[in-house]
UniProtKB/TrEMBL annotation, chain A:
Residues 427-441, 465-493 have a biased composition (Basic and acidic residues). Residues 419-514 are annotated as: Disordered. Residues 452-464 have a biased composition (Basic residues). One of its GO terms (cellular component) is nucleolus. It is found in: Nucleus, Nucleolus. WD repeats lie at residues 258-299. SUPFAM superfamilies: WD40 repeat-like (SSF50978). This is BING4 C-terminal domain-containing protein. The keyword RNA-binding does not apply. Residues 337-417 form the BING4 C-terminal domain.
């Protein structure tokens, strides 16, 4: 292959991190094995980059304007007019005026859509063939709807309890643990249904066993803004004080508490890469946060009642009857206005959601559901083993079994996913061991030594004086390694001090204090 | 291939639009006889939490491996006395020869686990068995000071279902003055070597040895020819020495003396300059023929004398049988065993063989049985479909990736040991730790440089004699 072809390949994307030098590894055998492995990684990254360049079947969408024409002035009707019939059918408006503002959810492969009206209307549609699968009335307020692991089950947060329904419409479970739920999320890899209720209680429930994995009181009052980070499955809650807290099921305290806005948080959304978070507050600001450094990358002025990121990084925000879509052309998240869509005056947008693997944005509003075409928002090439829009029922069943076999334990949710597979670097010989830790260890060893039972010996060998002597001996023996360590450290410190004494007088106050 | 149909790009009023539009024909199959179409996108963005999923798969794979680990296949019984030696026929994978302490030599068919032929003749214990490389002649030697050559029946007899145990007469019987301890056949010629009082090289047709070597006055205990070089052989003697002979020269070429006696030698068939020794001090030592100053690797896991050692034809593993009633499989460069096999009924293991297709291990022991084991305990035998094979390879690779983590390591390393062996092993460990600590303290309290640690690879060698 020509050299220019090699350069075109985007190998870095597939390498998952920098190649650490192996010079620090002292063990020759291990170093040899790791070198071979690094070689294999680079080969597989090259192969994947070649697949990306030559073998992917579809290309993404785009909207390009020439001259002075701005992309956000182009109306939906023009786009629909230019596009082929199949795609133009994807933009539709369903008018359902009586049953309240609608919330919606798509399955992870973008094949089915679930809508829930505030006044109790639940409906599931197949959006690829535009068929209605099932609709029914639950005669209660519905606050949120979510698909579970596939289109067979979905959960609805109703007035007092959450319910899980079948595709056919049968109520399967009534989840009574979280009263008055306001918002639901489903963590795909863990099969966890997360709900937040009007008292600010966060509940993690395993939908395969029904077990409650975590039930935490946030302590920050009523909260209905919740979203899950797709990269590490951490749940973010937006509170009325302007704080955003990040949670994992196994700890009762949030991982992170960030003060994001000067007023209540209105909406929250995560980018696919896991380290970009968009928050909208009642202080008329929309901020983009980098979660690695926990600082705001961008701030826009605007009001947003709902936010959503698409698979390709487009950000949709909506408030009132105006929907705006922002896009970053370069990779470094400087977002510019890309498209905008205005509905009939008086319509209030309820929730926006991008449809996976399609260039479509669906939104539920006060008088029904609509969807608009947003070129360039969906991922054109799907992976059959991740999400297949053309799934047959046999494939769906097998995927369910495989997903259950690969189900992750809730303990694996953590902020930094790269830590999985690594070893804890703390060992006894580490200098980083804290003083308290060492003292605790010494106390434990002493307690063990003192608690040891000695056999009673015969023929005058178990005299009280001898027993006392033996006891003292064991205590000294237990203390000895700690004392030796301390002595070693003292010597080291002395050596270091001596070496620092060699600094000129003017610099001695900058010497490192050990 | 026709490019997938997309919306036609229209340029109107300075605007170019294209939307993702997939037609169902390209992404679904045409007829129900076709395979389903599979599309892959390896972009890491689409595969969230891939490392965590792989870890979960590694854990499950480790657990499944333990569930399916049933290595014992069967026992072949028929002998009336302990089994002292075994031989493989390189031309016929399904057969194995075994000789016992009462002079009974049998050819077994491994798949039916029954005797195909019995070779009656020896009056005392059979001490060594070797098959010639062309698979026609079996050489046996014993305590009755005789070497007997037998003709190996062709494969057709072994395949007969109603094969009765027929005795056959030897092709030749050669008598000598002293009892023999071991025999091995050259890999590429007509010569075979017997050892006892001295090392004798025989030809098939001559009734007296062609050459004899003697170095020292102790009995020579075992012998092995080099697989690549037909003139090189290694022997071990009762004076704790290992001697290398080259048949083209009249004299033995190299000798090292160790601290304890070696019971058996095996050459690595893939790296023929390396050989491994089964030693009385419970360790196995791997040496490079060219540099006998120190061992290449010390394999320590047995708790009693190692009686026999044999390499797998891949050259990557070897199996050892020991006096402590266990059979262990080591990797060629690992310090500890990867697998241990034991049964309540298996007593002292005197000989082990790795089968010629690297899938089975056969052990002959004191309790008159030959036992057949799988080389990989959880392997599915038989023909695997390509998908099954790929899945197994994937699971092995993912276990390999995460085997250093505590949860996975705990499951992968777990083996049930019989109590006497567990206790003996922990006792040896305590003793070794105590020695090491003493050595460290000595070094800490002496002038730096006075106390020199000799590496374990060198420590066991007493002297090297050219």
């Amino acid at each position: 292959m020509a050299l220019s072809d090699e350069e075109d390949l985007d190998i870095k994307k597939y390498l998952r991190g920098e190649n650490k030098g192996l010079k620090a590894v002292k063990d020759k055998k291990l170093r040899g094995q790791l070198t071979v492995r690094e070689e294999l990684y680079s080969q597989s990254a090259k192969a994947a980059a070649k697949v990306e360049k030559w073998l992917l079947p579809s290309e993404g969408g785009y909207l390009e304007t020439e001259g002075l024409e701005k992309s956000w002035r182009i109306k939906q009707e023009n786009i629909v007019h230019e596009v082929d019939i199949l795609s133009s059918r994807k933009a539709f408006d369903i008018v359902l005026p009586d049953l309240g503002p609608y919330v919606l959810d798509y399955t992870s492969n973008g094949h089915y859509m679930l809508v829930g009206g505030r006044r109790g209307h639940l409906a599931m549609m197949d959006v690829m063939s535009m068929n209605l699968i099932k609709e029914f009335q639950v005669r209660e307020t519905i606050r949120d709807v979510k698909f579970l692991h596939n289109d067979q089950f979905f959960a609805a947060a109703q007035k007092k309890y959450s319910y899980i329904y079948n595709k056919v419409g049968t109520e399967i479970h009534c989840l009574k643990e979280n009263l008055f739920p306001l918002s639901l999320q489903f963590l795909q890899n863990y099969f966890l249904l997360v709900s937040i209720n009007k008292y600010g209680q966060l509940l993690y429930q395993d939908t395969t066993t029904g077990e409650i994995v975590g039930h935490h009181r946030t302590g920050l009052g009523r909260c209905d803004v919740m979203n899950a980070n797709p990269f590490n499955s951490v749940i973010a809650l937006g509170h009325n004080s302007g704080k955003v807290t990040l949670w994992k099921p196994t700890s009762a305290n949030p991982l992170v508490k960030m003060l994001c806005h000067h007023g209540p948080i209105a909406a929250l959304a995560f980018h696919n890469n896991g380290h970009l978070m968009a928050t909208a507050g009642m202080d008329h600001k929309i901020k983009l946060w980098d979660l690695r450094k926990f600082e705001a990358v961008h701030t826009f002025k605007g009001h947003a009642k709902t936010l959503d990121f698409s698979q390709r990084g487009l950000l949709a925000m909506a408030s009132g009857s105006l929907i705006k879509i922002w896009r970053d052309d370069s990779g470094n998240s400087d977002y510019q206005l890309y498209m905008s869509h205005r509905m009939l005056k008086g319509y209030q947008v309820g929730e926006v959601r991008f449809r996976p693997y399609e260039d479509v944005l669906g939104f539920g509003h006060s008088t029904g559901i609509s969807s608009i075409l947003v070129p360039g928002s969906g991922e054109p090439n799907f992976d059959t083993f991740v999400a297949n829009p053309f799934e047959t029922s046999k494939q769906r069943r097998e995927k369910e079994v495989h997903a259950l076999l690969d189900k992750l334990q809730p303990e694996m949710i953590m902020m930094d996913q790269t830590k999985i597979g690594g070893l804890k670097s703390g060992s006894r010989a580490e200098e980083g061991k804290s003083k308290e830790g060492r003292e605790a260890e010494m106390d434990a060893a002493l307690a063990a030594a003192k608690g040891e039972k000695r056999k009673k010996k015969t023929k005058g060998r178990s005299k009280p004086s001898k027993i006392e002597k033996k006891k003292k001996e064991t205590v000294i023996k237990a203390k000895r390694p700690f004392i030796e360590e301390r002595v070693k450290e003292e010597e080291k410190r002395k050596k270091q001090k001596v070496s620092e004494m060699q600094l000129p007088l003017a610099l001695q106050r900058f010497a490192r204090s050990s | 291939m026709k490019p997938p149909s997309h919306s036609k790009i229209k340029i109107v009023d300075g605007m170019k639009v294209k939307v993702i539009s997939r037609s169902a024909e390209e992404f679904t199959r045409e007829r129900s006889q076709d395979l389903q179409r599979v599309f892959r996108n390896f972009d890491p963005k689409l595969h969230a939490q891939e490392k965590a999923v792989e870890y979960a798969r590694a854990l499950n794979a480790a657990k499944l491996e333990k569930i399916f680990a049933k290595p014992f296949l069967g026992a072949m019984d028929g002998h009336v006395d302990a089994i002292s030696c075994m031989a493989k026929n390189p031309n016929y994978l399904k057969g194995i020869f075994s000789g016992s302490m009462d002079g009974d030599i049998r050819l077994w068919d491994i798949s039916s686990r029954s005797t195909v032929q019995q070779f009656v003749g020896h009056k005392g214990a059979v001490r060594g068995l070797a098959a010639s490389t062309d698979g026609s002649i079996l050489v046996s030697c014993g305590n009755d000071c005789t070497v007997r050559l037998w003709s190996i029946p062709g494969p057709k007899i072994a395949d007969l279902d109603d094969a009765s145990e027929n005795a056959s007469n030897p092709l030749a019987v050669y008598v000598s003055k002293n009892a023999f301890r071991a025999v091995d056949h050259q890999w590429d010629g007509n010569l075979f070597a017997t050892v006892g009082a001295q090392v004798d090289i025989w030809d098939h047709s001559r009734s007296e040895p062609v050459t004899s070597f003697a170095w020292g006055s102790d009995t020579v205990v075992s012998v092995r020819f080099n697989p690549a070089h037909k003139d090189i052989l290694a022997t071990s003697a009762s004076d704790r020495s290992i001697t290398l002979y080259d048949l083209r020269m009249a004299l033995p070429s190299k000798k090292i003396v160790m601290q304890t006696r070696t019971n058996a030698i095996a050459w690595n068939p893939r790296e023929p300059m390396n050989f491994s020794l089964a030693n009385e001090d419970c360790n196995c030592y791997s040496y490079d023929m060219r540099n006998m100053e120190q061992a290449k690797c010390v394999h320590r896991d047995h708790v009693s004398a190692v009686m026999d050692i044999d390499y797998s034809p891949t050259g990557r593993e070897f199996v050892t049988g020991s006096y402590d009633r266990t059979v262990r499989i080591f990797q060629y460069n690992a310090g500890h065993s990867r697998e241990i096999y034991h049964t309540k009924r298996m007593q002292r293991v005197f000989c082990v063989k790795f089968s010629c297709d690297a899938s089975y291990v056969i052990s002959g022991s004191d309790d008159t049985n030959l036992r057949l084991w799988k080389a990989k305990a959880s392997e599915q035998l038989g023909v695997l479909l390509p998908r099954e094979r790929k899945k197994q390879e994937y699971l092995d690779a993912v276990k390999e990736r995460f085997k250093h983590l505590p949860e996975v390591k705990r499951i992968v390393r777990h083996r049930h040991l019989p109590k006497p062996i567990y206790k003996a092993a922990s006792l040896r460990r305590t003793m070794a730790d105590a020695e090491k600590k003493k050595e460290e303290r000595k070094r800490a309290h002496s002038a730096p440089g006075t106390v020199v640690t000799v590496p374990l690879r060198k420590r066991r060698i007493v002297s090297e004699i050219e």
